[in-house]
Protein: DUF202 domain-containing protein
Organism: Flavimaribacter sediminis
Amino acid sequence: MDKNEERAVENLVLAVARTELANRRTLLAYLNTSIALFVSGAGLLKLSGSPWLEILGTVFMPVSLIVATIGIIDYRILRKDIESERVKLQDEASTDDSNEFGDQKKG
């Protein structure tokens, strides 16, 4: 494997790592939004005197659970895709290494 190919593989490995970190940040954003909705809903239910605000609080709480569920499902799906990409890169790197060593033994 020449320097350009090594550099390309290195860049792909780093890209997978960045994608994994971005996936984690996205999950945290979903959970942050979910917590904010839940707390807002609980606050509206506890502190409001208006029936409209109580309805809004009642709606916020289940929506927060839906948002958290969507975030977790999205995270798990993307994590599987990222892991399969990582395995594919490792397989390509190992076959390139074995080819490189095989060529050296022949030469």
